[in-house]
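Input/output pair, single chain:
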Amino acid sequence: MSDPHLWWYVSRASAMIAWALMTASVLWGILLSTRVMRRVDNPAWLQDLHGYLGGTSLVMVGLHMVSLMIDSWLSFTAAEVLVPFATAFKPLPVALGILAFYLLVAVQGSSLLLKRLPRKFWKGLHYASYATLLLVSFHAGFSGTDVGSLWYKIVSITLISVAAIAVTLRIVAGRRGGSARRTDAAPTSTPLQPIPRTMVVASATGLADGIVGIRLELPDWGVLPVWPPGSHITLHLPSGLQKQYSLCGDPANRNQYDVAVLRTADSAGGSSWIHENLVPGMSLSVSGPMNHFELEPAADYLFIAGGIGITPIKAMIQSLPAGRAWKLVYAGRSRQTMAFVAELEAQYPQRMIVHASDENLRGLDLDVILGPSTAQIYCCGPESLLNAVAARVPAARLHLERFVPLERMARPAAPIQVACRKSHLEFTVAAEESLLDALESHGVPILGSCRKGICGTCEVRVAEGRPEHLDSVLDDTEKDALGVMYPCVSRSLTPALVLNI
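Output:
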């Protein structure tokens, strides 16, 4: 600490580390968006690392600025490191560095507020990362005291070359993605309104008794939007019905969507129509993907699937790296009615338990299965299974995907005054009218699908007022934190609502 040049060394080291971390963060983000790193690990873990790199680079920039003020040789003031052109020392390069700092703060701040910001705004702001890297390169090239040294030239050329290659990769991947990338729905629980696209049935094959597997492709065999495991799409059937089905293929495959459809006895007509009428070559309108059952990063997972509930679970399993700890419990009436059971058993014989009721005199013993586990639990299946698991697992470790809405008690319905901020509309929703119906009748750009409060298609942002959540998409506390509601079934606890739509 007695070296008079200590803080000068700290300033140089922190600046180079920050530059390297920024480059790595941008490169990692590009690899994520282009899916190049898909098979290294699950997407959620990669996104966390991307954020960690960006956040650490911001810390290093802060250390660099503080050390400039502490260094007795430079003796920068707070104004000189925070206000562009406030210093007489190389004012333009220093100003570029200050602007890069503020852009970096904006990008990192937007990442922390990802679930609260409109997806398009967040994405546009995130592109400022490229500008930040460019400004830092000019700042380092013209204001650094080691510019003429060989090591500095080698490091600078390496970092600039890596950034140039990464940006070129992003541009090439974007062009290959074509128009499909522009309609990409948000891979979070706060997606954009999905835009239907026409897709062709490539195949329709039996997967098990009463279950048909449907493969959908774009007419031009183009690239489809990125989707994280747990996502679902909505099929717009010619009968007018809209049905949601979980994607059960490999999330890394950008050329097709795979779903499995169970024919149910109490079907409203959707599954019956698909089983009786859907044939290869037929065109369907498809919207999504959307995701309210997202796979979060964890060291250990326990997946529990009941019947057709295997569909989102299968995609989750396929997205995990080979070394990740997980187990699967797959229950059904019989192996003949359980889709993918033979495939999964052959691929993961040591990781799964199959419980076919016709082979087991005793029921599935959840106390034995769940008792010693500290893993994150992901469960999808019939309501009886979900309720049994929910009764045994703390909410912090539990993730459920429902096929039917929860029964929720609502207050006596009353009229609601609704204002749509973006559409500049105000109207009254009658007590006997759903909020979604009222929005549609007034021409508000919103899509409804299940109309039961389970698919999340009709999600809107609440600017003012307090919603009465009657849906089963997310926990009420999470919806309030995100500032969203689902107007197909939900109403208002306040006399008026202002919606950001």
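Residues 100 and 147 are 19 Å apart (CA to CA). The chain has four domains: 6-181, 197-290, 300-401, 416-499.
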